[in-house]
Write a structure and sequence with these properties.
It comes from Dreissena polymorpha (Zebra mussel). It catalyses: L-threonyl-[protein] + GDP-beta-L-fucose = 3-O-(alpha-L-fucosyl)-L-threonyl-[protein] + GDP + H(+); L-seryl-[protein] + GDP-beta-L-fucose = 3-O-(alpha-L-fucosyl)-L-seryl-[protein] + GDP + H(+). Its EC number is 2.4.1.221. Keywords: Carbohydrate metabolism, Disulfide bond, Endoplasmic reticulum, Fucose metabolism, Glycoprotein, Glycosyltransferase, Golgi apparatus, Signal, Transferase. With about 425 residues, the protein is α/β, with parallel strands linked by helices. It has 2 domains: about 240 residues, Rossmann fold, CATH 3.40.50.11340; about 170 residues, Rossmann fold, CATH 3.40.50. Helices cover about 35% and strands about 15% of the residues. It has 13 helices and 13 strands. The chain has a 7-stranded mixed beta sheet.
């Protein structure tokens, strides 16, 4: 029989997979996706983190890389991916929520859905099962000489830069660890890497005997060539279904203000493993959605960010082309800028809507929850217009590909004042099944 620790972990994972709510009670049945808990194959755990400066939507891409690695590890031995708690991201700046940390994944995503792709568990559940430590910690870094030519290589070596970990008197290693001050690593190494994610599989299976391994700076892992990896990438992406409470809020807003619902819009959600849509299957609600990135983009991508007047002019052309009178606006612009933009459109009899939660709801949802609701509503619009090279926009593109929208209604962006109205539009990334 399995040992007491494995039995405890099994119960924790079963609770994660069977006790999480969903719009349909039995929409996701993930218990068959658990690893093999046999005495000869003790379960192993992969933990990870990302460069602190990376935002919410880039971190979602890194998750897909690590989840695919764990999926392939499970072909030979049982591994569970430990989900890193969310918190303290640059764009989460709401003054009403001074500290946003230790936020679990179930707050934003349907854990049962993730588990249909690879076995996962929350960080706090890992602590309950394995204690406040990880056995091996690898800080992924560049090679000292930088990239000279492309070749896959990995090497445990001296740290190129000062890492964010220090050794305690007892030999353990302490670092940020998502704000859990008592959490430590038994052993720490810097590892220079220039490799695809699959290269980490033999390293973890043959070179490392520890049951728990932590990969920091996991964004260093590379998906692989898109032409070869697109199906695996899309499989992981399709599993990232938003949490039901956030979808419910988005659905209520759509119905109340935008005359939009899944049946009329042909955007009904199914279990993602059974869901296969063609371009044009989705109709979308009778509104246009705009992601209008401002703030730091005015400096980082000033040539590609239009003025409020030019942006409004471009949006009006889309509204006229599709004979629509409603706009949903997702933006990080200061309130006075957003109001000015909306007033410009109002002169043309356009009704503009934003999702603005009450302070109490904001404290409950967190900034990440509000961002997901914005993305969800944008994903269900008849037409979507995004911002230049924005990961927020990219994630909406992907949602709309999954739902089955025509690509000409999805891959659009605003043009900067100097670019003119015929600027280069986003690359179309076809969904693969």
């Amino acid at each position: 029989m399995a040992g007491p620790v494995d039995l405890q972990i099994l119960l924790l994972l079963l609770c994660v997979h069977q006790c999480q709510g969903h719009s349909n009670e039995n929409l996701y049945q993930a218990k068959d996706n658990l690893p093999d808990y046999s005495p000869s194959k003790p379960t192993r755990y992969l933990l990870y983190d990302v460069n602190p400066g990376e935002g919410f939507n880039l971190r979602r891409d890194v998750y897909m890389r690590v989840a695919n690695l764990v999926k392939f590890l499970n072909e030979d031995e049982p591994w569970v991916l430990v989900l890193p708690p969310w918190g303290r991201l640059y764009h989460w700046q709401s003054h009403e929520i001074p500290l946003q940390s230790k936020i679990s994944w179930k707050h934003f995503f349907d854990i049962n859905s993730l588990a249909l792709h690879a076995p996962v568990m929350e960080f706090e559940d890992y602590i309950k099962a394995m204690g406040n430590k990880v056995e091996r910690l690898f800080y992924l870094q560049r090679f000292k000489g930088g990239w000279t030519k492309w070749e896959e290589k990995m090497e445990i070596c001296d740290c190129v830069e000062e890492p964010r970990y220090h050794q305690l008197a007892n030999g353990k290693w302490r670092g940020q660890f998502f704000g859990y001050e008592d959490f430590v690593a038994d052993k720490f190494d810097c590892m220079s890497t220039q490799a695809y994610l699959l290269t980490f599989k033999p390293f973890l299976m043959k070179n490392i005997t520890a049951r728990s391994v932590f990969l920091d700076r996991a964004e260093s892992m590379i998906h692989g060539q898109y032409s070869e990896w697109s199906r695996e990438w899309w499989t992981a992406r399709r599993s990232m279904v938003f949490a039901k409470p956030l979808r419910d809020i988005g659905d209520k807003f759509r119905k109340e203000f935008l005359d939009s619902d899944d049946i009329s819009d042909k955007t009904e959600l199914e279990v993602w493993t059974n869901m296969k849509r063609n371009h044009g299957d989705a109709k979308g609600g009778p509104y246009i959605a705009l992601h209008f990135r401002r703030k730091d983009y005015l400096y980082a991508h000033g040539k590609e960010v239009p003025s409020l007047e030019i942006a409004a002019k471009q949006v009006l052309k889309y509204l006229k082309k599709y004979n629509l009178k409603k706009l949903f606006l997702a933006t990080d612009a200061p309130n006075e800028e957003a109001e000015e933009f909306m007033n410009i459109l109002k002169k043309s009899q356009i009704k503009t809507y934003r999702y603005r939660p009450s302070i109490d709801n904001l404290k409950e949802l967190k900034d990440g929850g509000v961002a997901i609701i914005d993305q969800y509503i944008c994903a269900h619009a008849r037409v979507f217009i995004g911002s230049y090279v924005s990961t927020f926009t990219f994630r909406i593109h992907e949602e709309r590909e999954i739902l089955g929208f025509k690509q000409e209604a999805t891959f659009n962006r605003l043009c900067g004042d100097e670019e003119g109205e015929e600027c280069e539009q986003p690359t179309k990334w076809d969904i693969k099944y």
